[in-house]
Design a protein that fits this description.
- About 25% of the residues lie in helices and about 15% in strands.
- With about 150 residues, the protein is of the alpha/beta class.
- It is globular.
């Protein structure tokens, strides 16, 4: 399992980066990291690789991350449940032996409606609307005292 702290890149290229938060550490391009993972994931073991995304990217850069995953992981990317192991309450989950040569991504999910809408946009190749480069996992800002609901 590898944790990847994904952040919005800086101008001019604005490509997503991997770094440890706002700490004083090296930044690497997400695309370069995904390329290396794709090339090295199963060199010494066939067992699954789990990528745990700590995702701080805006939607536009999340779309780039998704495209990098498809480009560099290809058929090894786990995109759907295995036939023998359908997902659901009370269902048996696939074990590591059934997931050999698979790359699995662990990430926070959107609410069902929002996820469906975003997936449709992605599958159509649509361009996501511009948005502020904020942490999508951050809680909503507290209302100012004079803006408090009455």
């Amino acid at each position: 399992c590898v944790e990847l702290d994904c952040w919005d890149g800086k101008a001019p290229d604005e490509e997503p980066i991997i770094t440890h938060g706002k700490a004083m550490c090296t930044e690497i391009m997400a695309e370069e990291a995904f390329d290396a993972i794709g090339k090295c994931a199963f060199v010494t073991s066939e067992y699954p690789v789990v990528l745990s995304f700590e995702n701080h990217c805006c939607k536009k850069q999340q779309l780039k991350l998704a495209k990098f995953c498809e480009k560099y992981f290809g058929d090894t990317l786990g995109k759907a449940p295995l036939e023998k192991f359908p997902l659901g309450p009370g269902k048996r989950m696939a074990g590591p032996v059934h997931l050999k040569n698979r790359i699995l991504i662990k990430n926070k999910r959107l609410k069902a409606e929002a996820e469906k809408e975003e997936l449709e946009i992605y599958l159509k190749g649509g361009d996501l609307a511009e948005e502020a480069a904020e942490d999508p996992n951050a809680p909503p800002p507290e209302p100012k005292p004079d803006e408090a609901p009455k």
